[in-house]
Amino acid sequence: MTIRWGILGTGTIAHLLAEDLALLPNAALTAIGSRTQDRAQAFAETFDVPQQYGSYEALVGDADVDLVYVATPHSGHLPHATMALEAGHAVLCEKPLALNAEQAARLIATARRHDQFLMEAMWTRFLPVMTDVRRLVHDEQALGDVHFLRADIGVTQDFDPTHRLFDPTLGGGALLDLGVYPIAFAFDLFGPPDTLTSSAVLGETGVDEQCAAIFRYDDGPQVVWHASVRADAGRTCVLAGSQGRLHGARSWWKGAPFTLTRTDDTTDTWARPYAGNGYQFEAAHVMRCLRDGRRESPVMPLDESHRLLQLTDALRADWGVAYPPET
Predict the structure, then answer these.
(1) Distance between CA atoms of 206 and 165, rounded to whole angstroms?
(2) What is the greatest pairwise CA distance in the chain?
(3) 95 flagged as catalytic
(4) 269-319, pLDDT tens digit by residue?
(5) What mean pLDDT is predicted for residues 148-152?
(6) How far apart are CA 291 and CA 289, in angstroms?
(7) For residue 96, what are the CA distances in angstroms to 121, 177, 179, 188?
């Protein structure tokens, strides 16, 4: 069963997914939608897409599209995913699912009302090495009792108030673009925290240019994470327990190798190199869900996406960060 994809948006993330769809059998990129016909045409020529639309409305109006990938900035996720769902399409929406939990709840309700599939594109969760991490931590308990997770993620982006990372009207800042990765990692392994403390450094445009938090779980684990659009602190992570530690190499959220070091100093490394950009794994999962008649993913369920945004809402409330589209 071939799944016919339409991509809404023509930015960097749309290009990455389009490249990876070519790696999957039975995935057909059939339509591209942009705000201008010229950009849609250029994207179509690059990826040999048969249908090009100069508006998002025209894209979701294509009855030959089974699944729409929403690849617009954070502030566009609610209106664009809603448009696609109401037009009768399944939707894979770039992370985060929306700007805030209230928007996410509205989007989830729309999907359920129209009996359509919806998933947040938290692509890290579907990378092969993350299956190894979950197995080592939970199934095999290779670390023993896990007490600690540290993860950092950062880039050195030159300041530009119009850039999506610094523009509050686009949901800019480190939290929603980068911080959601370590948060989702903690959710994947331990669930939502019982208590949290946090701090943020706000920039000229009012967005969080750096943020950090400590999650505390009543049953033991502590999570410490940091995200930045101004500094690269190494982009590594480590899980530590009573029987050893599991270290994720640089750019851990992209599927970098993880090395287990036991208390006797013996080591093993899990490296799962892959072709392409890594988005093909979440795409393949979504297609399996559609073939199985599912309306949401068992790996990235909608209630978890909602809870994640409830947490980021709480963090931003403490920092005094708000986005104009919310008001």
Answers:
(1) 11
(2) 61
(3) yes
(4) 999 999 999 999 999 999 999 999 999 999 999 999 999 999 999 999 999
(5) 98
(6) 5
(7) 8, 8, 10, 15
Interatomic CA distance for residues 181 and 112, integer angstroms? 26
* Residue pair 6/59 in contact by the 8 Å Cβ criterion: yes
Burial of residue 165 (CB within 10 Å: 0-12, 13-18, 19+) is buried
Out of 95, 125, 247, 285, the active site residue is 95
Q: Give the percent of the chain with pLDDT over 90.
A: 98
Query: Do residues 245 and 235 make contact, with C-beta atoms less than 8 angstroms apart?
Result: no
Q: What structural domains and CATH numbers belong to the chain?
A: 3-124+279-295 (3.40.50.720), 128-273+309-326 (3.30.360.10)
Tens digit of pLDDT for each residue in 90-103?
A: 999 999 999 999 99
- Give the CA count within 13 Å in the CB-facing half-sphere of 21: 26
Burial 293-304 (b: 16+ CB within 10 A, else e): eebbbebbebeb
> Looking at the chain, how many residues does it have?
327
Residue 327 pLDDT > 70, yes or no? no
- Token output for 101: 């939990």
Q: Torsion-angle region of residue 178: left (phi > 0), alpha (psi -120 to 50) or beta?
A: alpha
Terminal alpha carbon distance of the chain: 43
